[in-house]
Amino acid sequence: MQYVKLGQSGLKVSRLCLGTMNMGSKEWKPWIFNEKESEPIIAHALDMGVNFIDLADFYSLGAGEEVVCNVLRRIARRDDLVITTKVGYAMNNDINAQGHSRKNIFKPQY
Questions:
Q1: Active site includes 3?
Q2: 44 lies in which domain range?
Q3: Which of 3, 59, 89, 110 does the annotation list as catalytic?
Q4: Cα 59 from Cα 82, distance rounded (Å)
Q5: How confident is the model at residue 98 (pLDDT cuts 50, 70, 90)?
Q6: Domain count along the chain
């Protein structure tokens, strides 16, 4: 595996990053791999030298991060990995379950 610097962070990451959109809960999408099905995929990536793993809170509405991290706890050392995630997509229809920030609509009364 080849490794490159991640921007100006000083971290070295594998040129290949393991994307995890396909891991989580079939309740989200029927083609998703559950934890048991995801483990051999993650293990193979790690065996091949991948140390860069990409997640998103949106994947399986949070279950994706849980599945991947449960597997990683069993088979890897956290210090050996660079794990990234994305945020901002709607997790459900609730007004407070989406976006990066919200405008404060409450004005203090002094």
A1: no
A2: 3-86
A3: 59
A4: 18
A5: confident
A6: 1
